[in-house]
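Let us work through a complete example step by step.
Step 1: write down the sequence.
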Amino acid sequence: MEGCLACDVNSGRISVPGGVIAETPTWRADHCIGAFGIGAVVVKTREHREDLWRLNPAEAAELGPFLRRISDAIVYSLGAERVYLTMWVDKPPHHVHMVLYPRWPSDQKRALDLQLDREAAGPPAKDEAAVAAASLRAYLQRTAIRSRNSMPE
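Step 2: predict the structure and record it as tokens.
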């Protein structure tokens, strides 16, 4: 849907720092262009979906495992202590998306206080976001290969 930020990013009409981090047949992840800090990842449906309850069975089945993989990458690739998950689908045109964002060991604030600080700081520098996206993508590629190699035939 043209004019939907998530759809515009998915189609390439708008670019994000570092490009696509990971994708499945129904979900896509890229670095957040909003004010959630370095290492924040947007996970969104590839197709325009307005609500979670409108996900098709394949989208619903892939969501949990995909969030788990992205969270794992934020912790083990970037060194986050915790990964927060937020979902706000209130600004038309609606498109289901979630933001997973890191809490670093050095962060003094937690939860909403941390989110408010990040919002006040504004979006991260594009070059730093691109480096984080590349690190996440490389980690996910390495762990996917390891998972495939360890699967019984």
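Step 3: interpret the result. Residues 112 and 129 are 22 Å apart (CA to CA).
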